[in-house]
Amino acid sequence: MSMTSAPRPNPLRDGTVASYDPRVWAQSWSPQPAGSPGTLGRMGPARRSAIALGAGAGILALGALTAIAMRPAGTGAGAGGIGALPAASATPAEPAEVRHTLILAHAGDLTGMLTGQGLDPDTAQKVTTAALPALKPDGQVRAVLVFRHDGDKLAFARLEASNGDSSGVVVRRAASGAFASARVAAQVSTRTFVVHGTMDGDSFYTSALAVGMPNSLIPVFARALSFDFNFQTEVSAGDAFEAAYTQPVNASGEVAGVPVLLYASLTTATKSAAVYRFDQNGQEAWFDASGRSTVHALMRTPVDGARVTSKFGMRFHPVLHFMKLHGGIDFAAPIGTPIYASGEGQIEFAGPKGPNGNFVKLRHTNGWETLYLHMNRFAQGIVEGAHVAQGQQIGEIGTTGRSTGPHLHYEVHINGEQVDPLDVPTDNAAAKALDTRDLLAFEAVRDRVDVSRAQQSQ
Ligand SMILES: [Zn+2]
Asked: pLDDT per residue over 144-174, tens digit each?
């Protein structure tokens, strides 16, 4: 696998990779400064892995336990706790407070942690009771236990406990001896992340994961570009992709919510496409940089108010008088009834052609083609090579060529094969062009994404 940007497993702070795995959140929490070692106590696997990240954290903890429970800072460090206690404790200038930071697998571990840290059971219970209402029952809790020097002992000063989204609570012992809690609101902001890489020889899925695209965005990315690329046949190793998405982060820069894809681009050997998300009526919708919708699905019928007189399938041919595949659908309507391009595309052929009569062939993305036969005449500008929009009138109903009466014979070819037009996926939400106000809003969204991409592409 090759990538234009190396995978960075834990660079939440530089905004390149975000993970929703709580284990990674724990890793991203900064190790505490010297003098505030973590401690082990009772803990679940998640907590163990989190704490193990700090080199020697386990060793530090042993010394801390001894010291806090029994005696003034400094004397307990000898039993193997290298720097286990505040280094300053051996000098006259002791820190006013000692902070111990711990990661709990869940809030239910709080009491056990507090007693493990040397609080008497009654105090531990009261602190827990004051803190619990602010803590989420699921998910890790970051607990900072703060002690102050009280003569030659360490006394509980306060507990600062926070959830993954940075909301939490501070519990202190008031002068009266009671415990007072103060809630802390989550400080969540939305950050834009950009990832880019190249396709490996395996799959888009593995390629995207390798550069840190959140799992949940991978199908969204493929969907956003599905009108421009067939991911099964048109994408191969070495093709370049880029994605931009937003995700809520808390005050520490840890992801704290669901990511939303804003931009997707893909460049293969033969073509390139980039799309921006701009929701319409609450529906996910994608547009190219100029604000054109990427919806290229075909309209169900290219004629209004027509009657289907012959469906797709084997038929006794009314003119040739033998069984033959009827490779399309016949829509009967009066001469002059407008015929519309059922999808955006380019005109591959427009002109008279033997039994087809006046005939138009449109080429759409993904190798799709639509064919319109027996037209009375073509609309203005319908010539080979011209580009037509979905729903643009290309001609009108006639009965030219081998035809028994006014009708449109309509075919859909996918990768060169005739398919039943009624089986072709259509999209009723086929987007209209953005109106002026939406276009301005779209351009603002697009420009914000592009600024983020530029900033993060170094
Ligand atoms: Zn027909």
From this structure: 999 988 888 888 999 999 988 778 999 998 8
pLDDT in tens, 361-388: 999 865 689 999 999 999 999 999 998 8
In angstroms, what is the span from residue 354 Cα to ligand 1's centroid? Answer: 14
Question: Which domains occur in the chain, in start order?
Answer: 1-21+187-268+433-458 (3.10.450.350), 31-85+92-184 (no CATH), 307-423 (2.70.70.10)
Distance in Å, CA 339 to ligand 1 centroid:
15
Conformational region of residue 354, where left means phi above 0, alpha means psi within -120 to 50, and beta covers everything else: left
pLDDT per residue over 282-330, tens digit each?
777 889 898 887 765 677 678 877 788 888 988 777 677 777 788 999 9
How many Å lie between the centroid of ligand 1 and the Cα of residue 317? 9
Q: Could you give the dihedral angle defined by the CA atoms of residues 105, 110, 111 and 114, in that order, rounded to the nearest 10 degrees? A: 110
Residues 21-44: pLDDT tens digits? 322 222 233 333 333 333 333 333
Ligand 1 centroid distance, CA of 308 (Å): 10
Q: How far apart are CA 23 and CA 257, in angstroms?
A: 15
DSSP letter (8 states) at residue 301:
-
Query: Can you read off the two tokens belonging to residue 9?
Result: 């497993």
- Tokens found for residue 283: 């529906």
Question: Ligand 1 centroid vs 384 CA: distance in angstroms?
Answer: 23
The DSSP letter of residue 282 is: T
Question: Six-digit token pair at 184?
Answer: 């802390």
What is the whole-number distance in angstroms between the Cα of residue 412 and the centre of ligand 1?
A: 12
- Whole-angstrom Cα distance, residue 163 to residue 107? 9
Specify the residue for token string 């609101």.
185
Q: Taking residues 77-88, what's their average pLDDT?
A: 34
